[in-house]
Specification:
By secondary structure, the chain is of the alpha+beta class. It has one domain. The protein is 45% helix and 16% strand. Helix 1 runs antiparallel to helix 2. The chain is rod-shaped, with a radius of gyration of 27 Å.
């Protein structure tokens, strides 16, 4: 049997630990990048949820001004659509592209709104992952949806009982 010095075994163990570290670091980096994307997605969802809430509150207080087409007093930013859009644009630190957001308000006709009518503001955002591995696992974009409902606090343009 051949005798080997202890230094040879120590070098062998160092090489083994280096390979184990490389494998573990790869897995940890993949997990970290996934957590990063999930955090960005959650932050985007919170931003569109807050914007929907702000738009619904404005529509509840001013049911005559759902969109800019509802009259000269409803010009930008004095309507629910623009208030929702501005809330999305002015959210600090969000990774949102405000032009990828779809805003829907129902009912969208002030003639249908009376005191107590529920007004729903829905926001939809097309979220893109930045991690290539997660982008390959999911479709190209993930659709985030949020909505808020408020009851009208005033009458709209409708002749209500």
């Amino acid at each position: 049997m051949r005798w080997r010095p202890d230094s040879w075994m120590r070098n062998m163990r160092r090489g083994q630990s280096l390979v184990e570290f490389a494998l573990a670091a790869t897995v940890l980096l993949l997990l970290l990048s996934g957590v990063l994307d999930l955090g960005r997605m959650y932050m985007a969802w919170v931003a569109i949820q807050d914007a929907a809430g702000e738009g619904a509150l404005y529509a509840a207080m001013n049911p005559r001004c759902i969109s800019a087409a509802d009259g000269p007093l409803c010009a930008s930013p004095n309507n629910a659509y623009d208030r929702t859009f501005i809330a999305i644009r002015q959210t600090p630190g969000t990774p949102l592209d405000p032009y990828r957001v779809t805003i829907t308000i129902t009912p969208n006709d002030p003639n249908q709104i009376c005191f107590g009518t529920p007004i729903t503001v829905s926001t939809t955002y097309s979220f893109t992952m930045i991690t290539p591995l997660l982008r390959g696992m999911f479709s190209s974009d993930i659709t985030l949806r949020a909505y808020a409902v408020q009851r009208a606090l005033n009458n709209g343009s409708a002749s209500c009982p």
